[in-house]
Write a structure and sequence with these properties.
- By secondary structure, the chain is of the alpha+beta class.
- The chain folds into three domains: 19-108, Immunoglobulin-like (Sandwich), CATH 2.60.40; 116-208, no CATH class; 220-351, Glutaredoxin.
- Helix content is 40%, strand content 24%.
- The chain contains eleven helices and 15 strands.
- The chain has helices at 2-18, 111-133, 139-157, 162-171, 177-186, 195-208, 231-236, 253-269, 285-294, 311-315, 342-351, and strands at residues 23-29, 37-42, 45-51, 57-63, 68-73, 84-89, 92-98, 105-108, 220-222, 228-230, 242-248, 274-280, 300-302, 323-328, 333-337.
- The strands form four sheets. Strands 13-12-11-14-15 form a five-stranded mixed β-sheet. Strands 4-1-7-8 form a four-stranded mixed β-sheet. It has a four-stranded antiparallel β-sheet with strand order 3-2-5-6.
- The longest helix is centred in the middle third of the chain and has 23 residues, at 111-133.
- The protein is elongated, with a radius of gyration of 25 Å.
Length: 353
């Protein structure tokens, strides 16, 4: 019995010595003299705060099992911070140092953070290349293609770390949902437990459900007169054959540039069975109504005025606008997505000859 207990004790000690490390030390120094406190933030929540010494030095200590994307900032909201450094928070000795560009910072000390630094460097490199060749034919498309290739390559080659998920997050909107699904499924089991993988997976599941051929998701929201409008009723209205569910906002420049194409198609084909159901991500009712009136957008409009938290947009996995889904009213199935510019009129003209 004593021998068995000794073996068990030895096993426990060995497991403790060779088990997965969870402790992290995140430290560094800053050049700014007017900052006396820094915050460590992840998913909108402050994890920790640290005082900045007279020499500009600071440190955070803690335990972490799964890596997560975080920010070091001088305010509780990184979006409005004058100092904002992205860090992949994971076990180890991590150091924040000057980036070398634009008076910003980077974190070193782990392979994953070093990989993330190549992401930043590539972004700067391509930005500088574009600025040096701006005006040349095809330069924007060239830069966009190089960036997409870098991100897809990074996602596929880093299925065991958070950098791969960061790359996938940045490029997901430019890929077909099935391709994103394939890459997500290739990540190691441990990565599939992270908050970032779960968020990407949740959105992909929604997008897979809104791909052409899928039944559209029914919804109800308030119109410009304060009445609750059901998408089901819009599709069932007399004479309606096709409905474009269009996600937009008055504050969205690209959305407003699409309005002339929407108006032209609507005026040509409304009497033949084409309808638009606009879902606005506005938060100001006055701005929403003014945009509709000023631009004579005479189709059906709804909104809950919750900005990016619009419940319908969340159901559809919307992370950027404009975005739209063309629905066949007779079947309730989505037959096309993101019809922009002249492509919208072309598609509707084919359907309603």
């Amino acid at each position: 019995m004593k021998k068995a207990s000794l073996v068990l004790l030895l096993f426990m000690v060995l497991c403790n010595c060779t088990g997965q490390k969870t402790a992290y030390l995140l430290h560094g120094s800053i050049q700014e003299k007017d900052i006396n406190k820094l915050y460590l933030i992840s998913s909108g929540q402050v994890i920790d705060s640290a005082d900045v010494s007279d020499k500009g030095e600071f440190s955070f200590k803690g335990e972490i099992i799964l890596p997560k994307l975080a920010n070091i900032a001088n305010t509780r909201n990184p979006r409005v911070a004058s100092l904002n450094c992205t860090v992949i928070l994971e076990p180890g000795d991590l150091t924040m140092v000057p980036l070398g560009f634009y008076d910003e910072y980077k974190v070193t000390g782990s392979r994953t953070n070093d990989l993330f630094n190549t992401f930043v460097e590539k972004s700067i490199e391509l930005t500088q290349y574009y600025e040096a060749h701006e005006g040349q034919e095809g330069v924007l498309e060239e830069v966009q293609q190089k960036w997409e290739t870098f991100l897809v390559d990074g996602a596929k080659k880093n299925s065991g770390n958070l950098f791969g998920l960061i790359c996938l997050r940045e490029v997901a909107d430019d890929l077909e949902p099935q391709e994103v699904r394939n890459i997500l499924d290739s990540f190691k089991a441990r990565m599939q437990e992270t908050d970032l993988w779960k968020a990407l997976n949740e959105r992909n599941v929604k997008l897979m459900g809104t791909a052409p051929g899928s039944p559209y998701t029914e919804f109800s929201q308030t119109d410009i007169h304060g009445n609750v409008i059901s998408s089901k009723d819009v599709l069932a209205a007399e004479g309606v054959k096709y409905v474009l569910i269009d996600f937009w906002a008055s504050w969205c420049g690209p959305c407003m540039r699409e309005v002339p194409y929407l108006k032209e198609t609507y005026s040509k084909y409304f009497k033949k069975g084409f309808q638009i159901l606009g879902v606005s991500l506005d938060r100001s009712k006055d701005a929403w109504l003014k945009a509709i009136t000023d631009n004579q957008m005479n189709w059906v409009h709804v909104s809950d005025l919750k900005y990016w938290d619009n419940e319908v947009s969340r159901e559809y996995g919307i992370t950027s606008i404009p975005a739209n889904f063309l629905v066949d009213a007779s079947t309730g199935r989505i037959i096309a997505t993101n019809l922009r510019g002249e492509d919208l009129e072309k598609k509707i003209s084919e359907l309603l000859k």
